[in-house]
Here is the input.
Amino acid sequence: MMSTQVTYGQLERLFAALGLERTSCEGRCHAYYHVASDTLVLLPAARADTPARSADLLSIQRALVQGGHLDEQSLNEFLVTGSLPVAH
Here is the structure.
């Protein structure tokens, strides 16, 4: 992972583009779930313009790659540029 500039707001847009839906979560977090792949991602309830922590980026990488949502190269490009991946 190359960037610490990706924000939680950019991650939320990525999740929406990949079909992960925001669900209820108790406490100070946001939960995103994809039914078909049974992928669950939890993020802290941070402001959208807050840079994402590297620990959160690592857990997101694992969940999205193992869930089949993105390959590692596409995810790494997103983390570097902050731009949503383009479907091929």
Remarks:
- The chain has one domain: 8-81.
- The mean pLDDT is 88.
- The chain is about 40% helix and 15% strand.
- The CA atoms of residues 3 and 57 lie 9 Å apart.
